[in-house]
Write a sequence for this structure.
């Protein structure tokens, strides 16, 4: 009942507005006739009958001024009937006058508000077409309650009762869509329909500016994201270079240095034997030629960032066997159920074993070393045991060799454990997660 009463009141007001406009137009036509035809006839002395020329002139004046006069009369009548409140045309005129004074980001909201004020709709929307996709730019009122839907209503949805929409075009290009939701049982009047159409026709520049701002904002977001990606990429490059430098340092320390340490130890031994057993010293010195060649080859490979050739071609056990053949401390190597593993895993195991052998030769005073390699389901296990003096606390906490081994093993997700062997020396256990490759 309430809505029907409101509709009747609204209809009566519109009829009253229409009557006032009609009366005003009739008075305007009469006034033009009196002024032009009768007044002009008096001036030219032709009062007996209407002059044809003056009648044609009056008709032309009425035809030219009829539209503007009608619009003005409708605005005045609407203002008078609605108790002095701004008419839809006043609202439209005010927006057209002040459109340049609004900040760009507020234009869409201002347009939605003008549309709501001028039409008395439940809510209005302004949609922008950006990249062939309609995007909701503004709603008025901002907290408008809408009927439950499965998602955001599309701007051209005519299936919802009371939903009106008009496209905004400029130069044939679709810039956006204006949407109006009528109040229940209160449809738009003819004046409000014309306001809706007039606002859509004037909204081209506004929506073009709003769309340009939306596109610039999107570009800014993209550029910011790309700048972040570039910064992260640079950080990754620096980190990769640092990691590669540290890996090369470890490879030189654990690989080439092992050969050089063995060479130095054997040369000192040859010097000692030179006085007591020249023949043995000569044989030992002759063997060092190949050891020097191996050291040079290892350094050449490492300088190019390549793993030892035997490790790449034949795997972990043959590469370690070749490396321990020239060890100054006798080494026993045992391998069980080994397969080929990812290169990073084989390199970590290879250089960790060489580091442990080097530590045994330089620091432990060991007479024998045993290396055991075991292939287990999902892992590669390396055990290095010697019969030397074991590890002191300082060596465990600060030793560079142990740090290198731990870094290598943990870099592939493995674990390193250091303890005492059954012979009283050191025991190093490295477990590396690995699948057969």
């Amino acid at each position: 009942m309430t809505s029907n009463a409101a509709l009747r009141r609204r209809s009566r007001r519109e009829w009253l507005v229409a009557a006032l406009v009609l009366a005003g137009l009739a008075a305007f036509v009469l006034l033009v006739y009196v002024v032009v035809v009768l007044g002009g006839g008096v001036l030219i002395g032709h009062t007996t009958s209407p002059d044809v020329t003056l009648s044609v002139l009056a008709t032309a004046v009425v035809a030219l001024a009829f539209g503007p006069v009608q619009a003005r009369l409708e605005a005045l009548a609407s203002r008078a009937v609605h108790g002095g409140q701004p008419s839809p045309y006043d609202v439209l005129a005010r927006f057209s006058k002040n459109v340049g004074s609004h900040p760009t980001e507020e234009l869409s909201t201002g347009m939605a508000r003008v549309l709501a004020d001028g039409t008395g709709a439940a809510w209005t929307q302004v949609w922008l077409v950006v990249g062939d996709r309609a995007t909701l730019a503004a709603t008025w009122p901002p907290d408008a309650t809408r009927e439950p839907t499965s998602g955001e209503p599309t701007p051209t949805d005519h299936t919802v009762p009371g939903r009106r929409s008009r496209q905004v075009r400029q130069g044939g290009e679709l810039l956006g869509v204006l949407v109006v939701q009528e109040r229940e049982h209160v449809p738009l009047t003819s004046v409000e329909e014309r306001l809706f159409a007039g606002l859509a026709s004037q909204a081209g520049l506004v929506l073009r500016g709003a769309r340009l701002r939306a596109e610039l904002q999107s570009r800014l977001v993209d550029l910011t994201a790309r700048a972040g990606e570039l910064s992260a990429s640079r950080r990754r490059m620096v980190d990769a270079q640092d990691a590669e430098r540290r890996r090369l340092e470890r490879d030189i320390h654990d690989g080439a240095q092992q050969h050089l340490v063995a060479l130095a130890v054997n040369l000192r031994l040859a010097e000692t034997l030179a006085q007591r057993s020249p023949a043995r010293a000569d044989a030992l010195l002759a063997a060092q030629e190949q050891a020097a060649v191996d050291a040079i080859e290892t350094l050449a490979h490492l300088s190019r960032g390549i793993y030892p050739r035997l490790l790449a071609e034949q795997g972990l056990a043959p590469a370690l066997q070749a490396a321990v053949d020239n060890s100054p401390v006798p080494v026993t190597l045992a391998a069980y159920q080994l397969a080929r593993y990812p290169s990073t895993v084989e390199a970590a195991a290879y250089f960790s074993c060489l580091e442990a052998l080097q530590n045994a030769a330089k620091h432990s005073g060991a007479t024998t070393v045993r290396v055991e390699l075991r292939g287990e389901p999902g892992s590669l296990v390396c055990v290095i045991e010697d019969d030397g003096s074991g590890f002191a606390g300082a060596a465990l906490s600060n030793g560079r060799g142990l740090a290198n081994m731990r870094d290598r093993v943990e870099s592939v997700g493995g674990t390193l454990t250091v303890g005492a062997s059954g012979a009283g020396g050191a025991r190093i256990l490295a477990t590396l997660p690995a699948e057969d490759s």
Summary: The chain has three domains: 2-85, 89-202, 236-433. The radius of gyration is 47 Å. The chain has twelve helices and nine strands. Residues 2-85 form one domain.
